[in-house]
Description:
two-stranded parallel sheet; 15-stranded mixed β-sheet; alpha/beta; Leucine-rich repeat, LRR (right-handed beta-alpha superhelix)
Amino acid sequence: MLDIWPALPIVIDFMAKGKRPRGMDNIIKALEQHCRVRKIDIRGIPNSLMKKIAAVEKPFPKLTHLELYSDGGNVPTLPESFLGGSAPRLRSLGFSGIPFPEVRRLLLSIRNLGTLRLWSIPLSGYISPEEMVTCLSALTRLKSFRLGFRSPQFRVNSGNQRLLPLTRIDLPALTKFSFKGNSEYLEDIVSLIDTPLLDHFKITFFNQLTFDTPLLRHLISRTEIIKAHYRANINFYDGCTEVRFSPQGTAVHEGLSLRILFPPSDWQLSSFAHVCSTSLPPLSTLEHLKILSYRSHWRDDIESTEWLELLQPFRAVKNLVLSRGVAPLVAPALQGESVIEVLPMLENLHLEGPKRLKCVKEEEAIRQFIAARQLSGHPVAVLDHELRQCQREREREREVEDEVSDR
């Protein structure tokens, strides 16, 4: 039908379903009209179609939007000659699950790219940090950048691998940056970029034996993203642990977030605490901290020092919210000599969510914490109706016990 219509712009928008989706012949025919195609958005690409797309070597001079998503395995690799190595009018470019290790040539042909998504990159599509920084150097109008690997990536030694540039590059328009991979990879990236307008930074690390991210801390310090942070949420799940920051008056998901993926059977509180202490600059404006647990099981041998290390960066916090599953674990760590050193500005403690432990156990842990704060001269108010009810019930039980003993 393309032959009977005028030479109108073509938009290819296709969601493949099943191993042999219908309409693939139409996609191929439309791609042959390379001078008319303005937008390509193909999701769930089967490998049979991906092979034909990878063979497209003609340039698409009017293409402004390109999105290719695949969730399969052994996806054919896009060659350097893809699209003739040039798409000068692109404004948005995204690949998910698509190996394209030679993407540098295509990116260097674009001057007005605003959105770049290279996500779920398989090992066959590995791009070194050096190559990635070189690609970014030409994208001075880039506003949104997502870079993520499907699994932990490792350096690939090759004869033509370039050294890191000697000077830092500026990304003056970048406001959103998402990363998923190893901390070493991100360190190499952030060591050579400046992002003065960055206000949305989402980081996901795979589980590692060690985390060392001092350069990430410097990047965050050079931006406005952390200076106005007012609240933070720390969430514990079976498969990951995360902390989210946001300024006052905004949703919690805005701003900065840091997540580490842990195996379901693992529990690495100390690793997460170490990343927070080494990656985050001083949080002088953060007054609200919420710690919630969605875990089905907690390790029995968690030491108080692990919780203290986690809380160390949050010295300005005035309001602390704990879920009932976390409160009996955190409260004992805040007693003793460290009761003032860790959260010196704390004024209010609030317990949230339905009861998961026996009232007596929860009450005793919080009671000892409150008593320690009182003795230190830095009292904390407990904002929880159910806990106060528990305390009153315990007081009545003790009164009854005293009466019985007197008799």
